Amino acid sequence: MDDGVSPEVREKIDKHREGRSEHRGTLVVSDAEAYVGDTVTLEGRNLPENADVDVIWHTAEGMWGVLEANEVVGAQYQPRKEQLTSVTTDENGRFTEEWQIPEDYGGEHRIELRPKGDEESTLAETKLQILPWFEIDRTEAELGEFFTVTGYGLGPNVITNNYQIAWDNGMVGIMTGVQNRGTATAEVRAVGPPGKHVLQVWRNYRGVPFLQNNTQSPFGPVAGGRKSSWTVEVTEPESEPESAWLDPMWDEGPLSVHLPDIDEETDAELEISPTSGQPGTDAFITGRNFPADTEVNLIWHSHEGHRVKGIDITPVPMPEALPTVTTDEDGAFQVEVEIPTDIGATRPITAEIDGKSVAKAGFMMQPKIETFSPTEGPVGTEIEIEISGVGWPTYGNAYYFVYDNKPLGYICGLEAAVNRTVLQAAGEPGWHFIDVYPSFFQVQEDEPDFELKPHLSYLDNHPIRPLPAAHFAFEITE
Predict the structure, then answer these.
(1) Where is the composition biased (Basic and acidic residues) (predicted)?
(2) How confident is the model at residue 11 (pLDDT cuts 50, 70, 90)?
(3) Considering the entire predicted model, what is its pTM?
(4) What CATH number has the domain spanning 7-131?
């Protein structure tokens, strides 16, 4: 068998497997603890001479466990290993190699040396502990802008994958590095009054800050020896903040698991373009391979039900939402439609002939700000906010409102096609900010506790699909 391993090295491997090797090699790392981005030195000794050796990194792969793209089970991790590099020992069986810690989860990792091409033998091994750390993109921002906090080396265990961000000693929300191999990004508003403020990162598996993190925690301080709090400066804005806007949204498609079964299998094909957007989007529905010169009813489906009341959530047809079309002599049609206002996530569309569905497609409904009024007024002014396109699955149906970086409460995407709430304007004269973040309505696993908290790392760590946040600015007048 030619596997690239020299006969001399193969003999040493065979002796090792048979328990007759004279020694195991030695591997040491210059630092027992390090941060993502640090450079460490690996030193191998007592290894086969002039041998090619693979350096293997043992870690984890994380993802959200979600049932049927709806019920969030919790953070799930599987073992993962990858080859860091290959080295060649010298005539004394030694090597020295510098290596930069990649973006990966925190905690203990095993580094293993293997003969090149051999996946079963271990020549030497050592361990390295990755410590979490955080950085902030700037320490000064105009009122209404955002500070970006990035965390590295988060997770994967229960204790270290739920961090909380506080503004002026009030909790804003949580961040986690379940996805992206322990890296997470959160944006925090620069809220007033202008002047100095304190932004701090805490840690606790229950989803609220444990105030002994940096003094008496058995798990050590939040970020080892690095900063986890910053004094930041909020300055007067040069122009009026934008009154209402959503994060940019992505092109995406429907989730097939949320499309209903059709009644009859045929060659008919149904598609919609674009495949995602907000209520009011202009779209084209195209059909092919239908019977010629035949009337086809296009049926839009909403979802109805209620978790709290124990009513199953199922697709419900809305026959009046889309038109009826007639195919041409080739059994094709195309019709322009306006996407109706409805709850978010996958919106099934079926094509029916004589009351039986023969083809299906889907549209991914995204959120839309319908109303934000008024935009100014004295303390006590009632602020009406309406948002459509909020989804029904648990990963996306509870949008959480934060007023001046203080969590207030949530809305539920199952209550109506347009989610309406009325808030009271509060605070000193000047600009105040409302941010509406995705959250998790339910998570089956109790620990760590991600439920019903503003998810600040929604940008890169929300399950199933990216969701936008909504942002508002209100001016309190004298």
Answers:
(1) 8-23
(2) low
(3) 0.90
(4) 2.60.40.1930
